[in-house]
Amino acid sequence: MILNGGLEDHTNLRRKNNRIPWKRILVILCIFTTIIFLRRRHRLSLFPFKEKPPPIVPTRDWEHRPLSGCFDPERVERTDYNLTQFLDSRPRHTLNAGSNMKFEMECYDFAGTIRPDERYDDMTSSLIYHTYWRMDLLPFDQREGYTIDSFLATQDLSRSRLILWTNDAAGLSVTPVVAKYLMDWPGVFEVREVDVREMTEGTVLNRIEALEGMYDGSAWVDGDAVRLLALWNHGGIWFDMDEILTRDLGVLTEHEFVTQWDCRDDPNLILNGHIMHFRRQSPYLCEAFHIMATEPAPTPNSLDWGAFLYQKLYRRLMHGGVKPFSVLPWCFTDPRNCHDDISFPNPFEKDPGSWKGLNWSDPSGEGPIRDGRQHLEKRINQIWSIHLHNQWNRTFPEGGYIERLLEKQADELGVRKNKRNAYN
Ligand SMILES: *[C@@H]1O[C@H](CO)[C@@H](O)[C@H](O)[C@H]1NC(C)=O
Ligand SMILES: *[C@@H]1O[C@H](CO)[C@@H](O)[C@H](O)[C@H]1NC(C)=O
Ligand SMILES: *[C@@H]1O[C@H](CO)[C@@H](O)[C@H](O)[C@H]1NC(C)=O
C-alpha cells in the first residue's frame, strides 16, 4: 500500500507538473483583455512615455528660432489689423475649458455654453467664408452641394458671404450644381480662381518657388496654401468641402483659431485647419508665411503646410512671448474624432441601435431626452460642424441622422430663399 500510495503520489505529482496552468493563463488573458478594452474604449495609455512616437516638430529645435517681427506694433500699424481690438480686448467666450474633454459629454456640454449674445453680435459686421475645390480631381456634385447648402442654411446671411476658390473658375461655374447657387444666391455666393501671384503680393511668399508646384495629387499642399492666402487677403472663416456646418460660426469669431486634430493627444497631430478663422492681414498669418518661406519646400501630399506648420507657429508664438491663436476643441467641428463612446455615429452607416445608453428610436428614457436619436440631435445643435473626412464616394444611408439633418437644412434653406425673394 505504502509503495502503491507512493507511486500514486508520484504520478499525481507528475501529472500536476504536466498540467496546463489554466488559472494563470486565464488571469493573464483577463489582464490583456482589460488592457485592450481600456485602450480602445478610453484611449488610456498605460505607458504614456514609451509608446508615443517622437514629435515631428521637436521642441529643442524650435526654441531658438525667433519670430520674424510680424507683431511689432509699428509693423502692424501699416496693415489692416487692429491690435487693440483683436488681440488686447477681453474675449467674451473661453474656447479652452482647461480639461482635455475626452470623457463623457463634457466637450459637447462645453460647446453648448457658447451662446450668441445680442450685446456683442455686431462685433463682426461682415464675415467672409472661404472654401476650395480642385476641378481636376473630382467632379463637383450633390455631395458637395450639401456643404454649400449647410452654409446657406446655418450661417447668418445678413452679414455673410461665401467664396468658393478653385483652380478653374470658368469650368466650375458652369457645373450644374454650382451654376444654380450662382443664380439663386447672388451677393452671397461666388466662385473665384486662385491667382497665387496676386494673392502673395506684398508678402514674403511672393519670392518662393514652392507655391508654383504646390498642386499635388490630393489637393493637400495647395489646399493648405490657398486657405492661408485667402484669409490673409480677405480675412474670415475657412471651412473644407468635406463637412456639414450645423451652427452659425459667427459667435466664435472674436477669436482667431484653428481646430484640435482629435482628442487623442498624438504629439505629431495636434492642430488642424479644416475650419479656421483669421482676420485680414493677421500677424499670425504673417508669421506662418515667414516659416513657409524659410523652411524647405513641402513634400507633396503632406501636412507640411498644414498641421505641422500650425504647430511650429504655435510654439514659436508662445516662445516669442505672443498670445497664441485659439484652438477649437475636437468636438466643436469634428465630433467623429474621438473614441467610440462619445463620438458621433458613423454618418455613412445605418443609425446605431442605441446611443449613450438610450435605445435609438424607442422613447423609453426619462426626462426631456427620451431616445438616442433625440440625444444626438441635442448634441448636433451644440456643435458647429460634422467633418466627413473626405470619403467622397460614400453616400449617406436612407433615413439616417445625416439625411434627417440635411432635410431640416433644406427646409430652412427654402424659408431663407423665399424671404430673400420677397425682399428683392
Ligand atoms: C481699433 O480698435 C479700437 C478698439 O475697438 C478702436 O478704438 C480704434 O479706433 C481702432 N483703430 C482703427 C485704426 O480702426
Ligand atoms: C429599441 O427598441 C425597439 C422598439 O421597442 C426594439 O425593437 C429594439 O430591439 C430596441 N433596440 C435595442 C438596441 O435595444
Ligand atoms: C470614386 O469614384 C470615381 C468614379 O465614380 C472613381 O473614378 C474614383 O477612383 C473613386 N475614388 C475612390 C477613392 O474610390
From TrEMBL:
The answer, when asked if Transmembrane helix is one of the entry's keywords, is yes
Concerning InterPro entries, the annotation shows: Glycosyltransf_32 (IPR051981), GlycoTrfase_DXD_sugar-bd_CS (IPR007577), Nucleotide-diphossugar_trans (IPR029044)
Transmembrane ranges, per UniProt, are 20-38
Domain of life of the source: Eukaryota
Pfam families reported in the protein's UniProt record: Gly_transf_sug
* A Gene Ontology BP annotation from the UniProt entry: glycosphingolipid biosynthetic process
Task: Extract one GO molecular function annotation from the record.
Answer: hexosyltransferase activity
Residue ranges the record marks as coiled coil: none
* Keyword tRNA-binding applies: no
- Which UniProt keywords are listed? Membrane, Transmembrane, Transmembrane helix
Q: Name one GO cellular component term.
A: membrane
- Entry's family note: Belongs to the glycosyltransferase 32 family.
Protein name from the UniProt record: Glycosyltransferase family 32 protein
Q: Source organism lineage? A: Eukaryota, Fungi, Dikarya, Basidiomycota, Agaricomycotina
